[in-house]
C-alpha cells in the first residue's frame, strides 16, 4: 500500500525543527565513513550478554571535525543516545553486536 498524505497529519512538521518527529527510521551499520544521510538522533539496542555489561557507540557529530570522535556508553536494552546530529557511526571503537537506529527526515 503506498503512502497516503491524507492520513499524515505530521507531514507539515518534516524538517521544520530538529525536535520535530523523524520521518524515517533506518538501521545503521557502523563504518568508518560518512552516513549516506546524516541523522538527527540515534537509538541503540544493547543485548543483555554484551561483554562487560556495557557497550560503546563511537560517533562523529555533525559539527565535529573528522578526528573528533565521541564514545557513548550503552547499557543493555533499547535506549536513545544523547540528542546530537550524527554524520558517522564508527566501526572502530563501536562494540560488536549492537543494533543502532538512525532517525532522520529523508
In short:
The chain has 106 residues and is an all-beta fold. The chain is 0% helix and 35% strand.
Protein model, in words:
The protein is mainly beta. It has no helices and seven strands. It has strands at residues 24-28, 41-46, 55-61, 70-74, 77-80, 86-89, 99-104. The strands form two sheets. It has a four-stranded antiparallel β-sheet with strand order 1-7-2-5, with no helix packed on it. The chain has a three-stranded antiparallel β-sheet with strand order 4-3-6, with no helix packed on it. The chain is globular and about 50 Å long. The mean pLDDT is 92.
Low-confidence stretches: none
Largest sheet: 4 strands, antiparallel
User: Count the strands?
Assistant: 7
Helical content, roughly?
under 10%
Order of helices and strands: EEEEEEE
CA distance, first residue to last residue: 20 Å
Protein structure class: mainly beta
Identify the overall geometry. Answer: globular
The average pLDDT is: 92
Q: How much of the residues is beta strand, in percent?
A: 25-35%
Radius of gyration: 15 Å
Amino acid at each position: 500500500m503506498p503512502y497516503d498524505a491524507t492520513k499524515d497529519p505530521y507531514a507539515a512538521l518534516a524538517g521544520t525543527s530538529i525536535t520535530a518527529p523523524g520521518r524515517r527510521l533506518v538501521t545503521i551499520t557502523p563504518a568508518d565513513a560518512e552516513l549516506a544521510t546524516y541523522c538527527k538522533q540515534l537509538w541503540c539496542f544493547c543485548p543483555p550478554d554484551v561483554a562487560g555489561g556495557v557497550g560503546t557507540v563511537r560517533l562523529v557529530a555533525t559539527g565535529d571535525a573528522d578526528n573528533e570522535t565521541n564514545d557513548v556508553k550503552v547499557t543493555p536494552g533499547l535506549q536513545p543516545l544523547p540528542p546530537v546530529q550524527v554524520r558517522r557511526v564508527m566501526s572502530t571503537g563501536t562494540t560488536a553486536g549492537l543494533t543502532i537506529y538512525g532517525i532522520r527526515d529523508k
